[in-house]
Design brief:
By secondary structure, the protein is an alpha/beta fold. Helix content is 51%, strand content 9%. It folds into two domains: 287 residues, NagB/RpiA/CoA transferase-like (Rossmann fold); 75 residues, no CATH class. Strand 5 and strand 6 form a beta hairpin. Helix 9 packs parallel to helix 10. The longest helix has 22 residues. The N terminus is likely disordered.
Length: 496
C-alpha cells in the first residue's frame, strides 16, 4: 500500500479522466458523499467566519498578505537564489527540479542512498502533485502517509478530495470500516472493538502510526513557506504527526514549490495570522515547525530541499494567470464554493480541486486534455471564493481569462455546437438592425409558438432539438408578449 491514486497527479496519468461535467454528474448521484461534504464544509465555514469576525483588521491583513506574495513573485529568481545560499550555509543540500520526473528521480535516489525501504510522510500537496508515492513504490520503497485524513485516503485506496481535509468525502462509519479492514494488512491492526467515535478512531491511527514513526530512517515533507532571509522551511499542522516526521528520522527530504518563498521573517508574521483562520478556523496552528538545516543532536542529520518548478514559471509568465501562485493552500475557496460542495473534489481530476484548482491545474498542466479544458467552466462565477481568499486571488476574473484561453487555443477544426451558437449570436448582436428584425420575427410567431414552447405555463417547457439540451435543465420564465422596444415605439414611453 503506497497511497494515492494513479490518476490524481499532474504528470500524464490524468489524461484518461472524463471532463468535469461528466465526472460531476456521477458525483451528484452519490447522496452519501453530498451529505458528507455539506456537513463538513458547513462546519468549517462557520468556524472560519467566527475567528475572522474577531479581527477588526482582517481586510488589512488580506491586503498585506496579497502584497507580500506579489512582492515575492515579482523577484522570485532573486529570492530563490538567496534561499539556496542561506539554506546551504546552514548545512542543507538544495536540489532544483524542472518537472515531476526530475523531482521524483532526485527523491528516489536520495532514499536509495540511505538504504531505507520505507519513508514516513508529512501531508504534502507538492508530493501528491508529482505522484511521488507511485515513483517510490516503483522503486520498491513504501511511503506511509501520517496525516490522519491522508492515512484514511491511503488505506482506502482512494483519491484526496480536498486540499486541507483529503478524506472530507468520508464519514465516521466509513472510516471505521476502512481501519478495521486495512490497517492489519500494513501494520498494527485496528482494535476489534473499534467504534466510530472520533476519539477512538484517532487512537487507532496513533497506535498504528507510532511503530512507523519509531522505525523510520527517512521522512519526506513539503513546506507551507520557505524563508529566503535565513534558508528556513515552515510546516504548520494540527495533529503533531508532522513534528514526529520532522524530528525523529535521520534524513529529511522536503519537496517545495518555488512559489512558497517569502522574502523575510517579518512576512511570516502576516501569513501565520491569515492561514490558520482561513483553513482550519483556528486562531493559530497547534503545531508550527521551523527548521534551518540540520542541528547537532536535534532532528535529522541530513537535510535535503528539492525546489520544484513543474510548470510554475510558465504560470508566472502569464500576467493574468500568475496570481494563482499566491495561493497558500488554505482551502477556504473550496469550503464556500457551491459547485465543489455538490460535486466534490474527485470531479476536478487533480490534487488541486475547487475554485483554485480550476484555475491553477490547467495552467500547470496545459489545456490540451478534455478535463483541463473543462475546469475553467466548473464555476458559477458567484465570487464567494474571492471574498474569503486570504491573499485576495481574484479567481472569478481568472476563470474568465482561462475560458478565453481555452477558446483561443482550440480554434480551428470543426466548430462545436456551442461555438456555432455563439458565432450566430455575435452576428445577430453585431448590428441593431438584425436584432430588430429578429425581434419582429419572434413576435410574428404569435400565440401558437408561445403555446408550443410554454404549454400555457409560467416556465419554458422545451425547445426543439438541439436547444432541448439547454431547456431541459432549466426553468426559464415565459418571455413577454411584447418587447420593450416595440412597447416604446407604440406608446412613446407613456403608460396606457
Amino acid at each position: 500500500m503506497t497511497g494515492g491514486h494513479p490518476h490524481v497527479g499532474v504528470t500524464g496519468a490524468f489524461l484518461g479522466l472524463p471532463s468535469f461535467p461528466v465526472a460531476a454528474r456521477s458525483a451528484l448521484a452519490d447522496s452519501v458523499q453530498r451529505a458528507n461534504l455539506a456537513h463538513a464544509t458547513g462546519t468549517i465555514r462557520a468556524k472560519r467566519a467566527s475567528v475572522v469576525g474577531e479581527l477588526d483588521n482582517w481586510e488589512q491583513l488580506r491586503l498585506a498578505a496579497e502584497a507580500i506574495k506579489d512582492a515575492a513573485l515579482h523577484r522570485l529568481d532573486e529570492h530563490l537564489e538567496t534561499f539556496e545560499a542561506n539554506a546551504t550555509a546552514a548545512g542543507a543540500t538544495v536540489h532544483w527540479a524542472r518537472d515531476a520526473e526530475e523531482a521524483n528521480r532526485i527523491v528516489v535516489g536520495l532514499v536509495q542512498r540511505t538504504g531505507a525501504s520505507e519513508v514516513v510522510k508529512v501531508k504534502s500537496m507538492a508530493t501528491q502533485e508529482i505522484e511521488l508515492n507511485e515513483a517510490l513504490h516503483a522503486a520498491g520503497i513504501a511511503a506511509w502517509e501520517t496525516d490522519l485524513a491522508e492515512l484514511i485516503v491511503q488505506l482506502g485506496d482512494d483519491w484526496p478530495s480536498h486540499i486541507l481535509v483529503p478524506a472530507i468525502h468520508r464519514n465516521r462509519a466509513e472510516v471505521r470500516e476502512i481501519f478495521l479492514r486495512e490497517m492489519g494488512k500494513v501494520g498494527r491492526p485496528a482494535p476489534g472493538d473499534l467504534t466510530d467515535e472520533p476519539r477512538r478512531l484517532a487512537e487507532a491511527a496513533r497506535l498504528h502510526l507510532r511503530e512507523k514513526f519509531l522505525r523510520a530512517r527517512v521522512a519526506v515533507s513539503g513546506a507551507n513557506f520557505a524563508i529566503a532571509e535565513t534558508g528556513s522551511l515552515v510546516v504548520v499542522e494540527s495533529e503533531g504527526n508532522g513534528r514526529m516526521c520532522l524530528t525523529l528520522p535521520e534524513t529529511l527530504i522536503s519537496v517545495v514549490g518555488i512559489e512558497k518563498i517569502l522574502p523575510s521573517w517579518r512576512d511570516l508574521e502576516v501569513m501565520l495570522q491569515v492561514l490558520p483562520r482561513s483553513s482550519t478556523g483556528e486562531r493559530e496552528n497547534p503545531y508550527t515547525s521551523i527548521w534551518t538545516g540540520p542541528a547537532a543532536g536535534d532532528g535529522p542529520r541530513d537535510v535535503h530541499i528539492v525546489l520544484l518548478d513543474n510548470g510554475r514559471t510558465g504560470v508566472l509568465s502569464d500576467a493574468k494567470g500568475r496570481d494563482a501562485l499566491r495561493c497558500i493552500r488554505c482551502s477556504a475557496c473550496l469550503n464556500v464554493c457551491p459547485v465543489y460542495e455538490r460535486a466534490g473534489g474527485h470531479a476536478y481530476g487533480s490534487v488541486y480541486p475547487g475554485p483554485i484548482g480550476a484555475v491553477l491545474t490547467p495552467q500547470l498542466r496545459g489545456i490540451g486534455s478534455d478535463i483541463d479544458k473543462s475546469l475553467p467552466y466548473a464555476s458559477s462565477l458567484c465570487g464567494a471564493c474571492f471574498d474569503v481568499c486570504p491573499v485576495r486571488i481574484d479567481i472569478p476574473s481568472m476563470l474568465v481569462h482561462m475560458r478565453t484561453r481555452v477558446v483561443d487555443e482550440n480554434r480551428g477544426g470543426l466548430p462545436s455546437a456551442e461555438g456555432l451558437a455563439m458565432k450566430a449570436a455575435g452576428w445577430l448582436f453585431g448590428d441593431h438592425r438584425r436584432w430588430q428584425a429578429a425581434e419582429k420575427a419572434a413576435a410574428g410567431g404569435g400565440k401558437a409558438l408561445r403555446s408550443r414552447l410554454f404549454g400555457g405555463k409560467d416556465a419554458l417547457r422545451s425547445l426543439p432539438w438541439p436547444a432541448s439540451a439547454w431547456s431541459g435543465a432549466r426553468d426559464a420564465p415565459v418571455p413577454p408578449a411584447e418587447s420593450f422596444r416595440a412597447w416604446w415605439e407604440r406608446t412613446g414611453g407613456c403608460d396606457e
